[in-house]
Amino acid sequence: NSAAKAPPTPSPLRFSKFFQSNMRILITGGAGFIGSHLVDRLMENEKNEVIVADNYFTGSKDNLKKWIGHPRFELIRHGTADFELCGNVTEPLLVEVDQIYHLACPASPIFYKYNPVKTIKTNVIGTLNMLGLAKRVGARILLTSTSEVYGDPLIHPQNESYWGNVNPIGVRSCYDEGKRVAETLMFDYHRQHGIEIRIARIFNTYGPRMNIDDGRVVSNFIAQAIRNEPLTVQAPGTQTRSFCYVSDMVDGLIRLMEGENTGPINIGNPGEFTMIELAETVKEVSFNLSASPPGCESGLVYFLSVAHCFLLINPEVKIISVENTPDDPRQRKPDITKAKELLGWEPKIKLRDGLPLMEEDFRQRLGVPRKN
Ligand code: NAD
Ligand code: UDP
Ligand code: UDP
């Protein structure tokens, strides 16, 4: 029956049941890892109404289950009767909102490379649509860009004035060039139409609710350690990344949205690790060494602590070297001077303190309790 399949005419979603003084906030990609933590934080404020648009490509309704049915929360269904396309930002979207956090885009290399044309459409058409929406309703819009805009960086650490070293035709380009175009669109709408924009350049972020098998390095290593599988360090293993815990990230994004600066502003943790160091750290914390033992810093206590660490490292977990993928950036570390000065923001959670929180979440989801 063709009438049943006809797409419904989109009509603006209004929240007339709420007081006008409430802040209406759209989060695209709100069912994903960072997006769902952002939803949690924004829902804590009773003056916020949160609307999520997501096509569930890499996100899940499970991440939002505590809010489904809440009177200040709404999941968008629009555009077409096809489930896959519900909440897809590549379709025009009509909602009445005050702020837009535009996160929709797969972030894990295996997912963004899986359908690169879809990734670039999400970045380009999706961002264009969200800017058209921001223009129509006069909303402020924040884009979650990425440290990938710096490509394989030739300066270290990376500050926001660096223009980057990106391969425009490589397998990662759908993501990094896609985000670069998204940034360009943001600034063109700002200059041409006076749209209030905010751009965050996010560096590698980790924490509970990451997809267990999404292929990113921290989720891979933690899942592998819990399953007693070898940790797969991609060659050469000396490449570096800097890992930010998700609660710090969400705090930085909200400060940027609420502040006066357009950005781009780096949001990330400057603590830099080689992938070999990361594997060793995961191996240690996955065997109950969640934080540096007290008094670790000096003399005999330090010696005993290190000996204790070696005894406790899970001997069954091996670290192996595997082949890398093309165009893997060799080093990455944010210069966060701007975030400190303009947003009063810096990360609080160290890698060694964040990893056990993520491990606990993974153990619960994998059904593998910790052996003590
Ligand atoms: P994620 O994959 O968990 O979340 C992305 C969400 O966007 C998912 O829920 C997915 O279903 C949704 N989505 C994808 N395509 C869509 C589309 N066309 N329409 C609607 N929804 C769509 O990733 P994440 O780690 O939460 O990343 C969120 C944002 O932060 C992304 O924009 C990403 O580029 C950026 N970012 C993340 C990191 C990181 O380390 N996590 C680093 C740099 C930038
Ligand atoms: N758009 C949208 N929601 C809106 C307003 C616009 O999704 O509330 C989309 C619209 O479909 C268009 C894009 O945003 O594809 C850019 O809109 P804009 O008005 O800037 O450009 P134009 O429609 O004039 O090309
Ligand atoms: N990596 C690794 N083992 C894995 C997955 C990734 O050594 O199982 C490496 C990868 O080569 C890269 C780094 O970890 O150097 C970060 O990769 P990820 O996919 O997490 O994020 P990226 O920063 O590349 O987007």
UniProtKB/TrEMBL annotation:
Family to which this protein belongs: Belongs to the NAD(P)-dependent epimerase/dehydratase family. UDP-glucuronic acid decarboxylase subfamily.
Biological or metabolic pathway of the protein: Nucleotide-sugar biosynthesis; UDP-alpha-D-xylose biosynthesis; UDP-alpha-D-xylose from UDP-alpha-D-glucuronate: step 1/1
InterPro entries: NAD(P)-bd_dom, UXS-like
Cofactor(s) listed: NAD(+)
Domain NAD(P)-binding: 26-356
Catalyzed reaction equations: UDP-alpha-D-glucuronate + H(+) = UDP-alpha-D-xylose + CO2
Assigned EC number: 4.1.1.35
Example GO biological process: D-xylose metabolic process
Organism: Populus tomentosa
Record GO terms (molecular function): NAD+ binding; UDP-glucuronate decarboxylase activity
Name of this protein: UDP-glucuronate decarboxylase
Record's function text: Catalyzes the NAD-dependent decarboxylation of UDP-glucuronic acid to UDP-xylose. Necessary for the biosynthesis of the core tetrasaccharide in glycosaminoglycan biosynthesis.
Enzyme category, top tier: lyase
Subcellular location: Cytoplasm
Domain of life: Eukaryota
Keywords assigned by UniProt, alphabetized: Cytoplasm, Decarboxylase, Lyase, NAD
